[in-house]
Amino acid sequence: MQITDVRVRKVSKEGKMKAVVSITLDNEFVVHDIKVIEGDKGLFIAMPSRKAGDGEYRDIAHPINSDTRDKIQKIILEKYEIAALETEEAEETEA
């Protein structure tokens, strides 16, 4: 499995959620609404989820093992950092 595209949409409002990301796998399958969250120990991703009848949130799509989760998270966070730097540079240019 290869992640062939990552699209980062930064969230401008204050809060723990920093971006919403879509990834394309093998140029054939897209997963939308992966969130980049700022936690106590740094940035991490949260897979798309839906609120169940019991009030709990359940992932709609998620990796089956930790190696795949780590691979997806690494690529997403790298792309997020690039997008954050580009935003900072654009803001400095405008100022």
From TrEMBL:
Keyword Protease in annotation: no
Example GO BP: division septum assembly
One Pfam family linked to the record: SpoVG
Coiled-coil annotated residue ranges, if any: none
Key words, A-Z: Cell cycle, Cell division, Septation
Sequence similarity: Belongs to the SpoVG family.
Protein name in the entry: Putative septation protein SpoVG
Taxonomic classification: Bacteria, Bacillati, Bacillota, Clostridia, Lachnospirales
